[in-house]
Specification:
By secondary structure, the chain is mainly α. It has a domain at 14-116. It has helices at residues 14-40, 47-65, 70-90, 96-116, 162-167. α3 packs antiparallel against α4 (96-116). It starts with 13 loop residues before the first helix and ends with a helix.
Length: 168
């Protein structure tokens, strides 16, 4: 669930690209419809929180399409912050929608930066071993290392130093 190194670039499947285009189109439509509804209700000042919630929502299907679980919790977090801003703003909390939209942007920047740098947060175990081919396959006979390993206790091949992880 926590960030791991992104690994080599891979061309997305046609299915993943279709999901991406559909999600972006849906995102734009929801923002447009939601903005109109908020304006008609006299709550146009809640639009930043609406955008935050919809942006978060559009990330969730990416977890499935791109087989990247980070999108699920990331999208849920942004959607939750945006929904909280909408609710608090609707209850009359001054600047709640703006504040939670800014917080969503900062969370997005932080999570993407940490994830892209390949740093782990906390001590969540790696699921690298589960992705390996069967031990008797030809591919498994090649030397393989978990890019997220930093301790001997979790890595059968031993720890990596910080300098060796930067060279990869």
């Amino acid at each position: 669930m926590w960030p791991v190194a992104l690994g080599p670039m891979a061309r997305p499947s046609r299915f993943a690209l279709t999901v991406y285009v559909a999600c972006v189109a849906g995102e734009l439509a929801l923002i447009s419809l939601g903005s109109r509804a908020l304006t008609a209700a006299g709550d146009g000042d809640l639009r930043p929180a609406l955008i935050s919630a919809v942006v978060g929502l559009h990330f969730i299907p990416f977890a499935w399409a791109f087989r990247e679980r980070m999108f699920c919790w990331f999208g849920g977090l942004l959607c939750g912050l945006g929904a909280t801003g909408l609710l608090a703003g609707a209850m009359g909390v001054a600047h709640a929608a703006d504040a939670l939209a800014v917080l969503s942007g900062l969370v997005m920047l932080t999570v993407i930066t940490v994830y892209a740098r390949g740093r782990r947060v906390g001590s969540a175990p790696s699921d690298f071993a589960a992705a390996l081919p069967a031990p008797d396959s030809e591919l498994a006979q090649q030397p393989v290392r978990d890019p997220a390993c930093s301790t001997t206790s979790r890595c059968p091949s031993g720890p990596r130093s910080a300098s060796s992880s930067r060279r990869r």
